[in-house]
Design a protein that fits this description.
Blueprint: E1 9-16, H1 23-39, E2 44-46, H2 74-86, E3 89-97, E4 103-110, E5 120-121, E6 127-128, E7 131-132, E8 146-148, E9 153-156, H3 165-173, E10 178-183, E11 186-188, H4 198-213, E12 216-221, E13 223-226, E14 229-232, E15 236-238, E16 244-247, E17 254-261, H5 263-272
Parallel strand pairs: 1-2, 2-3, 9-10, 10-12
Antiparallel strand pairs: 1-17, 3-4, 4-5, 6-7, 8-9, 11-14, 12-15, 13-14, 15-16
Length: 291
């Protein structure tokens, strides 16, 4: 394994796109935009959730097995070669067919030498109108992963995972300097939620994880209309005190590239005592199932 560079600066890229019915077109577009991100200096590039397919879980129990991929498979073989060519780390979220004949909403991390690292399988699974993910995916069974890559140590959490503070805390305690959240989330057309602004809540909860853990956050979301959903894009990066450093369009495809100073993480963590003053002895209720 290549050692992580000591330099605390790292440049990341987020690929926000619309998605067509043609998975070959989607991969071609992703390759083009990944190369664009690399030309702009990105060292770690993150794709959006289920980057290669429409968001099929908005429909109940459809036959979508033809879109599932093994690991290694077409996406990982193609993008592994690209990562090695560009010298970049690439985070690839896919619809995975496991070797146990079960299916998962997964992310593969490819290091800058083209090597596949351990797979992360989405842990938290929603099952609500237009987000029927339990019809298609098993809950992740591989635990949380922190990836020590050529350029930085980071974790990947997928979409609904982003609402759970426990996942952010565990990955930070395990050494992640950045939490990447590949996502597929949007508004339901012609519906006004009594809860308030979903988009604002989505961004706020992730910025709160940044503050509570002293860690950088990078969320990448698709854009465009698919069925009854209008994906709001809005991919963004915030620093370890929750300040949004850069935000993508809510309507257009975009390659968002930004340099991060990860040295701020330690300053926030130590200055605010978020780890030193934890009380794990009082947290037992967190490990018990809901009543």
């Amino acid at each position: 394994m290549e050692k992580r560079q000591k330099n605390s600066n790292v440049i990341i890229g987020l690929i926000q796109t619309t998605v067509s019915e043609d998975i070959a077109v989607n991969m071609k577009r992703t390759i083009e935009k990944t190369k664009e991100a690399a030309r702009k200096g990105a060292q770690i590039i993150c794709l959006q959730e289920l980057y290669r397919t429409k968001y099929f879980p908005q429909y109940k129990k459809r036959d979508v097995i033809k879109w599932a991929e093994t690991i290694p498979g077409e996406s990982t073989i193609t993008l592994s070669s690209l990562a090695k060519e560009l010298g970049t780390v690439i985070i690839v979220p896919i619809f995975e067919k496991g070797d146990n004949n079960k299916y998962y909403n997964s992310a593969v991390v490819i290091d800058a030498d083209g090597r596949l690292m351990d797979t992360y399988r989405k842990v938290h699974m929603p099952h609500d109108p237009l987000f029927y993910e339990k019809d298609y995916f098993e809950a992740g069974d591989l635990g949380y992963r922190v990836y020590k890559t050529r350029y930085a140590s980071f974790a990947v959490l997928i979409c609904y995972d982003q609402w759970f503070p426990e996942a952010a805390r565990i990955n930070t305690l395990n050494g992640a300097d950045i939490l990447f959240y590949p996502t597929a989330i949007g508004w339901i057309k012609d519906y006004i939620s009594p809860d308030g602004d979903w988009h604002n809540a989505w961004e706020t909860i992730q910025c709160s994880h940044a503050i509570a853990n002293g860690v950088h956050i990078a969320a990448v979301n698709r854009v465009g209309d698919e069925g009854k959903l209008r994906f709001w894009g809005g991919s963004f990066v915030c620093d370890s005190f929750g300040k949004v450093l850069k935000r993508a369009s809510c309507e257009k495809e975009e390659v968002l590239v930004i340099k991060l100073d990860l040295s701020k993480n330690k300053r926030i963590q130590e200055g605010w005592g978020f780890f030193a003053n934890r009380r794990p002895d009082t947290y037992g209720l967190l490990t018990k199932p809901p009543k």
